[in-house]
């Protein structure tokens, strides 16, 4: 699979779970683990979603959280 295709597929894994509410109020590390992604692939996929304005981020006290964009 081409790199760009893999990034898009991984972004889809994250997005579908966020959209269904399976990952509500969840910090980045948990999402990465729940989607079974390597760190590098996870952050590329998050960047893809951020670029498409699909997600928003919230800085918690010690963690960063991600939510579907309304």
What general form does the structure show? globular
- Please indicate the count of domains: 1
- Percentage of residues in DSSP E strands: 15-25%
Gyration radius, to the nearest Å? 11 Å
What's the rounded overall pLDDT mean? 86
Q: CATH homologous superfamily - what is it? A: Winged helix-like DNA-binding domain superfamily/Winged helix DNA-binding domain
Structure description:
This protein is of the alpha+beta class and 70 residues long. The chain has one domain (3-68): Arc Repressor Mutant, subunit A. Helices cover 53% and strands 17% of the residues. The protein contains 3 helices and 3 strands; from the N terminus they run αβααββ. A 3-stranded antiparallel β-sheet has the order 1-3-2. Helix 1 crosses helix 3 (39-51). It is globular and about 35 Å long.
Draw up the topology in text.
Layout (H helix, E strand, L loop, with lengths): L2 H17 L6 E2 H7 L4 H13 L3 E5 L4 E5 L2
Antiparallel strand pairs: 1-3, 2-3
Brief summary of the model shown:
With 70 residues, the protein is an alpha+beta fold. The protein has helices at 3-19, 28-34, 39-51, and strands at residues 26-27, 55-59, 64-68.
Supply the key terms:
70 residues, alpha+beta, Arc Repressor Mutant, subunit A, three-stranded antiparallel beta sheet, globular
């Amino acid at each position: 699979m081409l790199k760009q295709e893999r990034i898009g597929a991984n972004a889809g894994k994250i997005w579908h779970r966020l959209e269904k509410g399976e990952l509500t109020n969840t910090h980045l590390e948990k999402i990465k683990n729940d989607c079974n992604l390597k760190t590098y692939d996870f952050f590329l996929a998050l960047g893809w979603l951020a670029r498409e304005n699909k997600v928003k981020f919230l800085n918690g006290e010690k963690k960063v959280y991600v939510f579907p964009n309304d």
